[in-house]
Structures are given as C-alpha cells and as structure tokens.
Amino acid sequence: MVNKVLVDTGAIRAHYGLGGSGIDSTGVHPEEIAVNGQKADRHREDYEAKLLRLRAWLVQRSADGLLLTTVTNFGWLTHGRSFVSLASEGSVAKVLITADRVVLFTTTNEAPRLEREEVAGWGLELVAWPWYERFETHWQSSGFSSQSILIDRNVEAELSVLRQQLSGHEQELLRQLGAESAELVEQFALGVQPGRRENELAGDLARAAWSAGMEPLVLNLATDERAFAFRHAIPTSRVLERYGVFSVCFRRFGLHVTLTRSVHFGPLPADLAARHLVACTLEASVQGNSVVGAPVKTLVAAMVRDYRELGWPEEWKQHPIGGGLGFQPREFDVTPDSQGALFDGQGFCWNPTIAGTKSEQTFLVTASGPVPVTAGRSFPLVTVRLGDKRFERPAILQK
What we know:
The radius of gyration is 23 Å and the shape is globular. By secondary structure, it is α+β, with helices and mostly antiparallel strands. The chain has helices at residues 9-15, 30-35, 40-60, 71-78, 111-118, 135-141, 156-164, 168-191, 198-211, 225-229, 270-288, 296-309; strands at residues 65-70, 90-98, 102-107, 125-129, 149-151, 215-223, 243-252, 255-264, 322-325, 332-333, 346-350, 353-354, 357-358, 361-365, 371-372, 381-386, 389-394, 397-398. The chain has 12 helices and 18 strands. Strands 4-3-2-1-5 form a 5-stranded mixed β-sheet. Helix 8 packs across helix 9 and helix 11 (270-288) packs antiparallel against helix 12. It has 2 domains: 9-164, 3-Layer(aba) Sandwich (Creatine Amidinohydrolase, Chain A, domain 1); 168-398, Creatinase/methionine aminopeptidase superfamily (Creatine Amidinohydrolase).
C-alpha cells in the first residue's frame, strides 16, 4: 500500500494558488496555446493509448509494473516537462504504471507545477515528500518494493522501440516542430551579418527557440576555418567573417528535430559549392530510399558506396551519418552493422558530411514514402538529380 500523501498538498496548492483540487482549468502549456493552439486533451488521449500499450507489454514481460525515471520517458508518456536543467537525464517526477494504477512520485517543491501544468486532471495518484528526503526511502516502505517492477533504464532498448512508433498525434507534432524549426533557423541565417561572435549568434538562436516554445538542446555554430576543422563545433568567441554552418536540435512536447543550414558572404568558392552538392546528393539519395521495410544495414551500405563513387571514400567515417529520432535527438546512430528495418511512423534523419559542409533533414517514414519535416521555405535550393528523380535541398545561402 502506497503511503499516499506524505505531506499536506492542500497547503501547497493554497500557497501556489492552485485552488482546492490542484487541477488547472485549462490543463494547457502556455507555449501550447501560443504556438499551435492545441488543447491538452490531445496529449491525454495519446497518454491513455500509451498506457494500453505499456500494460500489454507488461503482460508479455510477466511484470507487475514499470517505473519511468528519465526526462525522455516522462516526455514520451505525457508530452510534458520533468526537468530542471536542459542537461538533466533523470526526471524530477517518477511515474509507476501497473495494471490498474498510475502513480506519480515527486518532491513537494515539484508537485504543484507538475499537477497543474503537466498532468492536470489525468487521474494520476500523487505521492510527494520533502525535497531533503530520499525517494528510495519511500519506495522501500511502499507496497511496490516487493513486486516485480521494471525500471526504465534496465529495459531501455525495448522502450526505445516503443517510443519510435510515433502515433498520429506525435507525427503531427513532429511536422509542426520541424516546419517551425526550419523557418526559425532560416530566418536567423537570413539576418546574420559578419563581425559577430559564435556565442552571440548561439544566444540569438536560443532566444528565438525559447520564444517559439522550443527547447534549444544543440546549437553547433562553426564559422570559417572551424567549419572545416570540426564536425561538432561548440560556439566560441570566434568572429564570423565569411562562412557559417548552423546545426541545431530543438525539442517541444518531448519530440526532437535536427537540421543544418549554412551561409556564405561573398562569392561562393567552387570547391565549397561542390562539397555541399556532394553532401546533398548523399542525403537525398538515401532519404529517397528510406521506405517502409528498407533494411537499415542496406541503406548504410548504399551511402558508403555513394561516398566512394562521389570521390570521398573515407569521409563517412568522420561523422555519424544518421539515425532514428523522436523522443531522443537520436534513438540510435546507424552503423554498417545496424539491424532492423524502417517502419511506418518512424522519425529519422540522415546527416552526411563532407569537411566543411553538411546536409541534414528530419523526415517521417510513411507508407507513401519519406515525408520531410524540416525542408523549410525561405532558403535557395540546390537541385539533385538521381536517375529520373529530382530532389531539392537547401543550398548554401550567399549574401
């Protein structure tokens, strides 16, 4: 039997102005209203569908319950936020799912926001304790400690497969996030001018992302010679002179997209244009073949072959070339030994690089073929022709 409520949550609710029940009348994130107007009932429907899937999975595993402890898995289950720092992996809210109960474990300082903004009215049982006490103490004294409870970190590979099977609602959210992220980065690049430091530019991107209700998890900004020297360039005080490559990962409602755009001031060197065309050709070719049922290992082998045939046989070894995504920036990185095949509703991103350039686009694997979600609409395009097929990818913006 769970020691339900270990503190006076009524006093907490009163202190924070939550009312008698602790349930917010709208149950909607402020950014959800501002960004896309969706109501929390869509998230709740998704949550209830996941409970059915997880409970069926628990029966298959002959387990009594599953304890979710990470930011990733809380975001997947609820589309909510359970972090304090963007770098947090551990969730401030642990969620236990059994055959007939869902229990949210947290501290009294986190409970008010979680109750009001993340799971308002969803019927989760709340167990809260003072921040200076340990979760393990209360877990051991609960009736759950003697049961067969799986911990998410111990079954992460299985949960990753479940997370990658994006629902219709999640696919819609990913499309929205991708379109808005591409427009944000392209508008940023259109406004960039030489003479500013990389870390200043990163601050501009972060500000724009937060203003759009997105969490900026990755801001890799490489300028001039750093773009050729480093594949993952953390912003520095280096001043932009002629060339910049901007790679980002934004998160909203637990979902992630990644994309890259580049800008050059003055005439574009022929060698740089040629490198970018190779990167775009590599990415367009493999994405065009990323259909339901395509073996990942076969797709990787094809890209490695394309690298060789395009004159860069060793370049694929210098940087990861892609992977599945959704509730992680990469649920997995592909390798020549990757197992499994692509499936309907999976988020994916191929991101081949040639020193100094990168082509990166998030897309959805669907029954009708790959659907780009970060294509953008404000950048000039480079055309890639592969047989009778024609693909367009963002060019290096010349200013």
